[in-house]
Write a structure and sequence with these properties.
alpha+beta; 7 strands; four-stranded mixed β-sheet; about 30% strand
Length: about 170
């Protein structure tokens, strides 16, 4: 009878929770599960959950570190972000312009960026990809399968000049 029980256990599929690996919990949260049991190393016992927003923030910060990236997001989101930044106590949204899909072991990232005028766009996109992939993989342990960079605008030096000359009315 014990042989039949062992054979039945061997044919029963085990869940990720018992075998180690990754599984999807709730929408937007990936759980990396460890092995269970006293004979397993302490570092592998238990679960680690990584929410989509974590990957969004890491990718946003890594993108902003690259010289030549002026801002992130589309026109409307940048306009709303500019208003938010001017409100006292408001804080900037590091996830603006970042969309992610997080699977069990992998993630894909889409970025909307505004580059400075005069910088080679292909070089900036290359540097952004390298930095985002390195940061996300190092911090989360997820494999980044792709980073799509969409350049939505070019920031011109005169865009910063808000002075329209002398006032017409004093």
């Amino acid at each position: 009878m014990a042989t039949q029980e062992l054979a039945a256990k061997a044919n029963t599929p085990q869940t990720a929770e018992h075998t180690g690996g990754t599984r999807q919990n709730a929408p937007g949260v990936t759980t990396l599960t460890g092995r269970t049991g006293a004979d397993e190393p302490a570092a592998t016992r238990g679960r680690t959950s990584i929410a989509d927003v974590v990957v969004v923030k890491i990718a946003g910060m890594a993108t902003r570190e690259i010289p030549g990236v002026y801002d992130m997001g589309g026109g409307l989101s940048r306009a709303i972000g500019a208003v938010r930044d001017r409100v006292p106590g408001g804080r900037s949204n590091v996830g603006r312009g970042v969309k992610v899909e997080v699977g069990e072991r992998q993630t894909a990232i889409d970025l909307d960026v505004v580059v400075e005028y005069g910088v080679p766009i292909t070089d900036v996109a290359h540097d952004v990809r390298e930095n985002v992939i390195a940061a996300v993989e190092r911090i989360t342990g997820l494999e980044v399968v792709e980073v799509n960079v969409a350049v939505n605008d070019v920031h011109l030096p005169e865009d910063d000049n808000t002075d329209n000359g002398p006032a017409r009315v004093e």
